[in-house]
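Review this:
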Amino acid sequence: MTKFNKKTFFLMIMIMSTVMVMSSNKWLSVWMGMEINMMMTIPFMFQNKSKELSEKIMTYFLTQAMGSIILLTSIMMKTYNLNFMIVMFTTTVSMMIKMGIPPFHMWMPEMLNKMDWITLLIMITLQKINPLIVSSQLTEQNNLLNMMMITAATVGSISGINQLSLSKIMAFSSINHMSWMMMCMAMKNNLWIKYFIVYALITATLCLTFNKNMSFYMNQLNHNMMNMNKMMMLTMMLNLGGIPPLPGFLLKWMTMESMMVSNYFFMMTIMIFSSMVTLLFYMKLMYTNMMLSSTMTKFKLMNHNKQLYLIMLINLITPSILLI
């Protein structure tokens, strides 16, 4: 079996485990689906025999195993009809560990640093689905959810300001966007699903662009990048930051409208300011990239990457269909 076929096989099982969690009505089968998902992610991370990579895989495994143990403990507590609030607290903490929500986030940026872009894309999109589905079932009388939103919004925005690694910037951006999705959950609507789809599309476009240009640090964005690729990356960064009239803004606008209806004014203020801070490091990322001219020849500029442009077009059109 070739390397491509192996990864395709693992990806299919990962998607099937996600479907298993989505369709399950038993906590034990939810735990089993999350365990399968975790084990199928490790082959994506394993690229070569190096001490650094082995350390990252072990960090990921131990962190996810800790979250699974806490989840399994809360399932056992629920079976013996213990205090509802204690069960809710332990289950929420296990999901925070799995998603990398502050204060349990320290493993995530360090592990994703210098990871290849396809693996990073899977980690910050597909790996978030199962914990988000479980968290959406825990919104009833869950006071811990408000703390999760505030810490994710503030830490995800402030920690990304001084970062030079693109992997860490995407990791902290993911933490910040998790707070918006959890806010949608707190208002007991399914807007978080639409938000996640749009976020996944934008992140996929950026990660594939970084992967094509072999860029891992901010100073590498200026080299060997075509002008059209620069414009596409700027559009996606503005989309991720929530600048009108792009789809990323429309979703944040709808979330803020629901927050005002539900009287979440204090939370809305924190979320807006944190979103402005994330926009700061998005623009810092693109400033030098847009100001400096391309190092490639004019004839080379005609060789556009049609696949990435098609993905960007889908990225801009699909959210409009979701919001109808």
Q: What stands out?
A: The CA atoms of residues 33 and 155 lie 29 Å apart. The chain has one domain: 3-322. Residues 296-303 have pLDDT under 50 and may be disordered.
